[in-house]
Amino acid sequence: MADQKEMRAQYAETLIALVGEGKDIVVVEADLMRATGTGAFAKKFPNRTVNVGVAEANLVGVSAGLSAGGKIPFAATFGCFASRRAFDQFFLAANYARLNVKLVGTDPGVTAAFNGGTHMPLEDIALMRAIPDLVILEPSDPLSLDALVRASAGRYGSVYMRLQRKPAAYIYPAGEKFEIGKSKILREGKDLVLVALGCLMVKEALKAADLLAAEGIAAAVVDALSVAPLDIATIGGLMNATGRIVTCENHRVTGGLGSAVAELIAEGESSVRQRRIGAGANEFGEVGTQDWLAERFRMTGAPHRRRSQRIVLKRYTMAEKTKLAIASDLSGFPLKQELVKHLSSRDDIELIDFGIESAEAPQPYFIQAPKVAKAIQEGRADKGILICGTGQGMAIVANKHKGVYACVVDDLFSGERAKIVNNANVITMGGWITAPFLGTQIVDAWLAMAFTQKMEFKKDFLTNAFNKVVEIEGEQFK
Fold this sequence. Notes:
Layout: E1 4-6, H1 7-20, E2 25-29, H2 33-36, H3 39-44, E3 49-51, H4 56-68, E4 72-78, H5 79-85, H6 87-96, E5 102-106, H7 124-128, E6 135-137, H8 142-153, E7 159-163, E8 167-169, E9 184-187, E10 192-197, H9 198-213, E11 219-223, E12 226-228, H10 232-242, E13 244-252, H11 257-267, E14 273-279, H12 290-296, H13 301-318, E15 322-328, H14 333-344, E16 349-353, H15 365-377, E17 383-388, H16 392-398, E18 406-408, H17 412-422, E19 426-430, H18 436-448, H19 460-475
Parallel strand pairs: 2-3, 2-4, 4-5, 5-7, 6-7, 10-11, 10-13, 13-14, 15-16, 15-17, 17-19, 18-19
Antiparallel strand pairs: 1-8, 6-12, 9-11
């Protein structure tokens, strides 16, 4: 089997195969057979092919008539026309009449690429979700497409299917079974769940899971496949187990998969927290390559990773407050005051301030650092922040205490890596180095890291190397 295949070619092949298996299928087109890939079907079954021309409402009306006559019509056109232009006809002639029309919207979301904003359906799911009892599907690879077309042909009732025309990589092995309304777990994870829809977003969600794994965050990945009905058992079970869910769709964040999951959370009175990946609520489509548009609308793996990191922070800090001890010497006093102000505003932090009360009451770092270290040792604090001139002295003294792993940080990157690499439960900062606005961001980044790695900072060489320095400086305060 090849690594990938054109989705439209698979669509036509499956329809041809279904006719050969006895299904009374008719293909209905709006002068887009070349774009949809159904030319091969028309060539093989000219009497089962109807081209209504550029008239999408009529496309749906003719399909409804064919359904009323006992046929199984598969009608395809660009997703923007299938949804926005033919919505009323589809609502009334097919769905209200309880007929059996399979409407396929091609080039969903940013896959419309150079056809631009006018042809870019970022709201088609939102429209279709308003129709009672309508099945809404989006396959993610050629095998799932074949299976879902077959499943749609095998059940009575109208269906809306989003179809990427371009080549897509195979995700599933031959023989994989699919059902309407059932999702697929592609990757296990205990920290959060990424629920993705369609070829583009499933691929990007898997990339994001790899990025997160490198940072110690175990993200489950689910291929939704069906928006209506939504797989409540699988998706609901995973999001309740992890407490965090990120929905990923090639669609506007309003009205689609993200909204379906948000409704599930709200109606279940769940404490699950959600983030949504997709085009912004107030954004229209644009012209560009698919890759550029995916970046433009924040649909790639990197935004998945960033939002997942933020939501993991909430998981580990909302259940109970983090007890955070903070102290500084005179050089760190201004920065300490700003951090105290910032941290006191957070509902997830219980702050213990060992810092000096004013610049007129200085205390050296080698007296201040043990206060935070001992609070951690005695269980009065979970984590600590220490601030001196450069951060180095505080780190040296703190690391002399058993169970304390202190790491000097001076930017956002080192704030994140302090937890990933060093398993640091204390960070030290330089009051001469770090601006207050950056300090608050560093602290938030460090607190946002919720990792399971057990790597310990090899601190002995630092401690031994600077012990003499600490002793010498201590003489100045006698």
